[in-house]
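Thread title: Can someone regenerate the structure for this chain?

I was given the following input by a collaborator and told the matching structure tokens would be attached. They weren't. Posting the sequence so someone can regenerate them.
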Amino acid sequence: MKAPDRAVVDKVLKWLNYGDEDLRLARHGLSLSSYCPYRLIAFHAQQCAEKHLKAYLVFRGIDFPYTHNISRLLELCGDEAPWAESLLDAEELSPFATTVRYPGEEEEVSEEEAIQAINIAAKVYEVVREALKQDGVKFPKAL
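Best answer:
Regenerated them for you:
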């Protein structure tokens, strides 16, 4: 197997790092003892999933539009990613990218929904990283 291009891997690692931060922040949000912003937790979970899928697309050299639509990103992964079908439940995260961020658009998010969003994002995190690992990406210990 040919080693992946270093510049591409560096971009991939940046996307993953940003996604990691979103997931860490979402998880930390659950620890707040007073007002817990479940809508923001769900937003950051969505962002984790989105950025991990985009990292995979960057690695594969697949252009993607400016979108928060997880379904579209999974579709773009296409035949290159037989694992994408195992992440179809991640499509339910897409609305959290916009409807929870703006007044008048907001959607109530329960604690249960926020936890589910984190669990889905964690699954995307694991599956995409495993796929990249299988393709020869080596992750620094900090990620």
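Helices lie at 6-29, 38-60, 70-77, 111-134.
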